[in-house]
Write a structure and sequence with these properties.
Layout: H1 16-22, H2 26-34, H3 49-55, H4 59-66
Length: about 70
């Protein structure tokens, strides 16, 4: 959707990137990062997308988010 904010947050402070990471959707994470999603936004618990990748022990997501 043109004009949509890729870094919008829900009531829990979750961005599309955090949500896609928590659901282990690596292709969506890649698309969001390519579109300029901010990987350093924290949710209300203080976690960033990389924290969710580490919690799920998903090596592909971890390396993608560490780049």
């Amino acid at each position: 959707m043109p004009g949509a904010n890729i870094n919008s947050v829900d009531i829990n402070g979750m961005t599309p990137l955090i949500l896609a990471t928590s659901l282990e959707k690596i292709e969506i994470v890649r698309l969001l990062l390519d579109a300029g999603a901010n990987r350093n936004i924290q949710d209300k618990e203080g976690k960033i997308a990389l924290d969710y990748a580490v919690l799920s022990d998903h090596d592909g997501l971890i390396s993608l988010l560490e780049d």
